[in-house]
Amino acid sequence: MKRLVLILMLMAAPLWAVEPDEVLDDPALETRAREISSGLRCLVCRNESIDESNASLARDLRLLVRERLVAGDSDREVVDFIVDRYGEYVLLEPRKDGANLLLWWAGPGMLILAALVAALYVRGQRVQPGSEPEALSADEARRLDEVMKDE
């Protein structure tokens, strides 16, 4: 029973693709490297971070992150270096500045626009108080009587 619980616990634990030879000796630098790596997209696996991916490019990126940290770069400098090299697509969460603001605000903007159009449409369809519908013409009344008698 204890073995089963141990196996289930190991299966539930997150799997990291970081290999032992990649781990830095300094625990603080390794923690920073893991935080940075968790925000960078594997360009091969698409929706996995480089920390979770087993692809060789992800390994190269993990090593590059650690190399830049050992060289003394700040977290922001490391991310900027990788974005300059591979483009903004490498970020799992795109930045909220520049042209990306258009993308971030497009969804809420379209929702507001749709609500405004719907409100104007409903307002235009509402019958104005005091306006009576037009009476049927003699020809329309006769035709209605014919239709009602057929049933």
TrEMBL record:
The chain crosses the membrane at residues 102-122. Keywords: Cytochrome c-type biogenesis, Heme, Iron, Membrane, Metal-binding, Signal, Transmembrane, Transmembrane helix. One of its GO terms (biological process) is cytochrome complex assembly. The keyword Magnesium does not apply. GO terms for cellular component: plasma membrane. It comes from the Bacteria. Residues 6-148 form the CcmH/CycL/Ccl2/NrfF N-terminal domain. InterPro entries: C-type_cytochrome_biogenesis (IPR051263), CcmH/CycL/Ccl2/NrfF_N (IPR005616), CcmH/CycL/NrfF/Ccl2_sf (IPR038297). Residues 139-151 have a biased composition (Basic and acidic residues). It holds the Pfam family CcmH. Belongs to the CcmH/CycL/Ccl2/NrfF family. Possible subunit of a heme lyase. This is Cytochrome c-type biogenesis protein. It comes from Roseovarius nubinhibens (strain ATCC BAA-591 / DSM 15170 / ISM).
